[in-house]
Amino acid sequence: MVRVMLRGINTVRKRLSNGRVALYYYHRETGVRLKGEPGSPEFLAIYGEAERSVRERHTTAVLAGLMRDYSMSPEFTSKLAASTQKEYRRKIAALEAEFGDLPVAALNNPQVKRPFMAYRAKVAVESGERESDYRLSVLSACLTWAVDNGRIDANHLKGFKRLYHSNRTEIIWLEEHIDAFMKVAPVEMQRALILAVHTGLRQGDIRKLAWTNYDGERLRLRIGKNNRKGCVAPLVAIPCTPALRGMLDGMKRQGAVILTTSTGRPYKARYFGRQWDDAFAKSGLEGTDLHFNDLRGTAVTLLAQAGCTIPQIVAITKHSLESATRILEVYLDPTRHLAEQAISLFENASATEFANRLQTGPQIGPAREGEKNKCV
């Protein structure tokens, strides 16, 4: 008899009236008794039928099956970035633990929104508002997919009001922040900061930058965020500033990628995060609410402060015009530099010459304080 390893089987020992101990086998999830000896054709046939019924139940009857189908759909595997899929799967696992056995039929009832919103409130207390909104967003995406594929009639979570609102206005790295970080950070983290400030690239793209992307004048790459909806991201070229070229040309090439650990290995996201957080803590910036991703907004802000127009900015950052405008609305603090720059342009433009000549002429009015006792 062929021995096979089957999971999900409970073995029950029962003493018979004649004193002999008999073994009975049951399929754990369905409770179906598995007759015959383990590995026998009869045993395997009953086991296979029980497993098939579980798969059908998960696929058609409860929310867990619906979410698993969504995670295997082309909309999930082809249209979402790999990093997004990874995060979605984490949220789906948490949602399955809470609502996995919810009947799919119940999703058509508008009242189903109530337990979902109660769950969000609980997660907001335990893990924060951002996490709670993220989980419900993933569930809503799954329900929208189910509607589009005829599995349910409506997504009653569509357009739910979010608790978390990110307002990063004025949260940019200022000169003093960058100086404090550069003084204590290991050279690998200093290089990451310089790359971010001079290119506006995201951390994921910076970690993947290879020496083959650098031709001595420009960085040519396919930006990861643009590699979505099943399309290959276009190849873009970012001109390097003299400061960035100086750093890159002076680096020892320890591996295929530009940014490596002290041992010359590419950075994994988690290890990079630990190194960055350690340097951030040593720099005394923990109370500033700054993040690595704010360096992207800082780059956009610096380009604007340098006098770049939105089209010029997007030529570097590769945003759409609409996206770049939104970024500037969020990140661009109306600083003194921009105000002085604007007034300088106003003072020197020929179109505003007439306005610069405007004066009110001599004024007759009450004498100013300190002039009241002067002789005429």
Calculate the terminal CA-CA distance, rounded to whole Å. Answer: 125 Å
Report the CATH architecture of the largest domain. Answer: Orthogonal Bundle
Question: Kindly state the mean pLDDT as a whole number?
Answer: 83
Walk across the major sheet and give the strand order.
1-2-3
CATH topology-level name of the largest domain: hpI Integrase, Chain A
Please give the oligomerization state of what you see: single chain
Radius of gyration: 32 Å
Q: Helix/strand-derived class?
A: mainly alpha
Shape: elongated
Q: Helix tally?
A: 16
Number of domains: 3
Largest sheet: 3 strands, antiparallel
Element string (H = helix, E = strand): EEEHHHHHHHHHEEHHHHHHH
CATH superfamily of the largest domain: Intergrase catalytic core
CATH hierarchy, class of the largest domain: Mainly Alpha
Low-confidence stretches: 371-376
**How many extended strands?**
5
| Share of residues in helices | 40-55%
Beta-strand residue fraction: 5-15%
How would you briefly describe this protein structure?
The protein contains 16 helices and five strands.
Fold and architecture overview:
The protein has helices at about 40-60, 65-70, 75, 80-100, 115-125, 130-150, 175-185, 185-200, 205-210, 240-250, 270-280, 295-305, 310-315, 320-330, 335-350, 355; strands spanning about 10-15, 20-25, 35, 220, 235-240. The protein is mostly helical and about 375 residues long. It folds into 3 domains: about 10-60, no CATH class; about 65-150; about 175-340, hpI Integrase, Chain A, CATH 1.10.443. The chain has a 3-stranded antiparallel β-sheet with strand order 1-2-3. Strands 4-5 form a two-stranded antiparallel sheet. Helix 1 packs across helix 2, helix 2 (about 65-70) packs antiparallel against helix 4 (about 80-100) and helix 12 (about 295-305) packs across helix 14 (about 320-330). The longest helix is centred in the N-terminal third of the chain and has 20 residues, at about 40-60. The termini are far apart.
